[in-house]
Design brief:
The chain is globular. The two termini are about 15 Å apart. Helix 1 packs across helix 2. It has about 60 residues and is of the alpha+beta class. It has two helices and two strands; from the N terminus they run E-E-H-H. It has one domain.
Amino acid sequence: MILPEDYFYSVPFPGLYDVLSEAPELTIGQLTESWENLHRTDQGVRWELVLLGDVLKAIGHLA
């Protein structure tokens, strides 16, 4: 996978959806790591959807 950006800010769950509390701390994600982890078979479907979401969001911002 080739994208012009690799690292991105991420808000960990459950803080991502807790908009009434203090602003959560940001973490850093990496698109190449998310992409590589999609190819592992031991992640479980729910986690793979989160990783796929990272990649799709980046592609959508390029469109």
